[in-house]
Give the backbone structure.
Amino acid sequence: MGQPVAGRDDGPPSGRGPQPLRAVLAEVLAGLLARHEPRAGGLLAQASGPLERIFLAIWWSTAPPGTVAEPQRRIGPYRVGLLVDSRVVVEIDQPPASPPTPDQAVRDRQRDRYLVARGYAVLRFAGSEVRDDPWRCVAEVCDYLLASAHRPGA
């Protein structure tokens, strides 16, 4: 196998070396939106990091009409990555600088239970999922919204 080529999807998944083409395109889209769409720029400025910014850029360009996305929304004692339509929490787990401690894993689970107990759906993505294919991650959230809108009692 040859060396990975910048922009091709055969690069290493570790984040070192060439990025997948989808990630590069998403970063370009985020930059263009921030410069040319004032409302999108305001939304992207609220992102907590580059992966959330990429997710929001794809969301802006593909979300179902009328959906509302609120980055860094406070719910009780927590600040969530993204709240969609006041009912779906989207979390993007950033790659940690060091392995998570058992205490951090417990806190994450407690946070998810807190949100679910208050009626929120929690959709959690690994940072590598968003980096490698942000369109698929956004599509999963859109699919969830559409499916939950058609459930009885929704």
About this structure: The first helix runs from residue 21 to 36. The mean pLDDT is 79.
